[in-house]
Amino acid sequence: MNINFYLAFDMRDFANSGTYWNEQIAGGILAQSAADEYRVYSQDGNRNFFFGNNLGQVDNNMPVDGTIIAWNNYQSNGAGVFSMFSFSVSAYLFASYVLSDNIADLLEGLIMTGDDSVYGSGFNDYLLGYDGNDVLRGQAGDDILDGGAGDDQMLGGSGDDTFIVGSDGDIALELTETGGFDTILIRYTPESVTYTVAELVESARNQSGAPLIIFGNTLDNSLYGGSTADYLYGDDGNDYLNGGAGADAVHGGHGNDVFFVDNVGDQVDDLTRTGSAGSGIDEVRSTISYSLLAQPNLADIENLQLAGTASVDAIGNRLNNELTGNSGDNLLNGSAGADIMRGGAGDDIYYIDNGGDRVIETGAGDGIDTVRSSLSHELGDHVENLQLTGGGYINGVGNSLANRISGNGQSNILAGGSGDDILTGNGGTDLLYGNDGADLLDGGTGDDFLDGGAGRDQFTGGAGADSFVFNSGDAGATAGTSDRIVDFSRSEGDQIRLNAIDANATNGAASNDAFAFIGTGAFTGAAGQLRYQVVSGNTYISGDVDGDGTADFVIRVDGAHAFVVGDFVL
């Protein structure tokens, strides 16, 4: 038997919805032009022509006597929708299947039981061969071709077609280079456990439930493993290789390949099927923490992107890597090479160890991010924190955000930006500059210089002989707006440095006049006087630079202190 379908509608509707076809037919008889021809109109205006032998009695608008050998459907304008012919089915059985909404069983049990030829339409067809060695031709549209049992030939057309293969004898081919993006679904285990994707077909998926070796072709392939441990070979082209569940081995070959990793046992490389080195810019996309240093074969993989939403980490190799985080809290470490690191959403941590390393955060709402750098570093946009690492004498600079910047064990220069920053020197002789904003400066151990800049700042010198530095305009003029020194200690050699402030702003001189320290005495109306007083257990230092007898700046020092002139650099 040879059955041809010439379809101008979605064959998937036909295969899955008997109700649709019952509505199409249950309209009424237009004419009976001859004893063996019935014309039945459709509710949507289409015409159904039934041809047969000895067709006679009609029941529910369907012939029930005789034998039907052909069924044609036409649009009201005469254009053909589909034709089925060269079969022989009792009219009574045919009608019973149609009127009971059982079109699929009609096809499978009565019509399409032999070696069939099925031709698709210009629409999205579902072509099913059932039993026999069938030939399915998709034509135009995004078609699904399933030969069913037997050794079938499935030929795609101009759309994005899907081939379902179920035996070694099945052949799935795309006939033209402009045939769309086509996919083979492998639903059996080949005798050789190996499947090679035909030329001009782009994608294949293992749906057999067993381990397979899948070889791509020269196109840009998308190969997917199944629920077990698969081997995928991309060969030429820019391929996407996803082993699926199980510990898979994926080999990119030549081209710019993408490997998807979701199992710690997955093995990735850019080797060809012969074992030679591939070429191109390759990328691993991983839902788990992943290191391009973990396997020798990863040495030639350039890029690593974290997928999913879990808080996982990405580590590069000796190449110039691009590392990309996901929406979780990621750690990105490019290792050697000049690396580009993009964290995205989440509280991300970046490691800088090369002068060419770049950190890119694109959004203000992308979390609280931290750079850990063994080199001098200035924070880029949308990155909040900086931690200096290693043993070098290096420096750190913030940005306009509220930064947290910390030094290493050596002498560092740390500078905030316009935000409310926290600067921590740790070991060494550190220089801390708060700049604008209400900053917190902590020198840590060592003899540190702390300069808060503008804004209401707080200073903690830590161990060592620390210098608290003030410039004109740094401190407010009242106790409520004053800068604050938390741990002044004369015994450790701390000093308050006011020598950058011109003590006399009234004489018009270009020189920087020094303050006259008057202890706890009151201002007398002379410009340049400096005094202190203890109020409620804390000490307040004030200076008068214009001689009006009132303080022009005030500095709070925690605790009750009896200051002497040697506590200051005037």
TrEMBL record:
What are the annotated GO cellular component locations? extracellular region
**Which Pfam families does the entry link to?**
HemolysinCabind
State the Gene Ontology terms under molecular function. calcium ion binding
Keyword Iron set for record = no
Which UniProt keyword terms apply here? Secreted
Where this protein primarily resides, as one coarse class?
A: secreted
Q: Fetch the SUPFAM superfamilies from UniProt.
A: beta-Roll
Q: Where in the cell is it found?
A: Secreted
For this protein, the record's InterPro entries field holds:
Hemolysin-typ_Ca-bd_CS, Hemolysn_Ca-bd, RTX_toxin/Mannuronan_C5-epim, Serralysin-like_metalloprot_C
Q: Which PANTHER family match?
A: S-LAYER PROTEIN
Q: Identify this protein by name.
A: Calcium-binding protein
